[in-house]
Design brief:
The protein is mostly helical. The chain has a two-stranded antiparallel sheet with strand order 1-2. Helix 1 packs antiparallel against helix 9 and helix 2 (about 45-65) packs across helix 7 (about 160-170). The protein has one domain (about 5-305). It is about 60% helix and about 5% strand.
Amino acid sequence: MSASLRVPVLVMLLFIIAVQILAIAITPAISASDNRVFADPSSTSNPIVYMLLILAFTAVLLLAIKKKKNWIVNGFIQLSIATSIYYLMVAFVSPLLALLPTAAALVLLRYYPEWYVIDLFGIAVCAGISSLFGVSMTILPALMLLVILAVYDALSVYKTRHMVSLAEGVIRVKAPLLFVVPKSRSYSFRKDAADVSSSRDQGQPGGSAGSSNSSNSSSSPEAGKKGAFFLGLGDAIIPTILVVSAYSSLPAGEFLGINLPTIGAMLGTYLGFMALMTTSRDKPQAGLPFLNSGVILGFLAGCAAAGITPF
């Protein structure tokens, strides 16, 4: 890894770490709120439902991008973000009060989508979505989901390449579905007009920029002197679902109540991310095969160390 990549890679890794720590911290409140994505967290049909949501979400966005209906793309994404923020807030305040920060976040993201605003909200949204889905699935459905999404991500990036098209469209319309790491202080995500579709040295994600129902891939090449590196939110969300599931489904541990499978899953995510960052920078890379493999292997190692049978 070149010296110019080390700092951006470290920052993106810190984003993932922050998401996972925050997700664990808010999980007790999410659990107490009784808000669940699935009525039966142990049902093995949950990953199938999730996958159908991803396909529907992707199809709508791709069609809107193809038809150059940017208002549909932005509207659909803003609705998804609003829903995510709202369900995060109702775990801490009343439903009525939760509308205020939700509305404020949407106004800020709509009228001032600068990179640091997007990054801060990205961490909060990723943590909230990960926690909500993590408490909505026990270990087996969560593992099934990660395996399915890793395969889907690889196919959609390397075979059909529709996730590459989606990622390019998301960046082009300035949708807040990415972590943005600028290469220089003068960089502005709001004003950047780089042609993402033609860049081979741009920090574009290889897959769709994720939200609660999207997976992503990441690659972090460079984008000119004032460019930026991008990491799809799904690369932080999807592995963290298993982290939260392990934390909420298995017995509490001795380290701040965090059990070894959860710690193993977290460490595995970071190792998977670093492995992803060693891949070729000259083309988009599927991130979830690396990240999901890492989090699953780390989780299993943690179970073995703790003497826990997860199923």
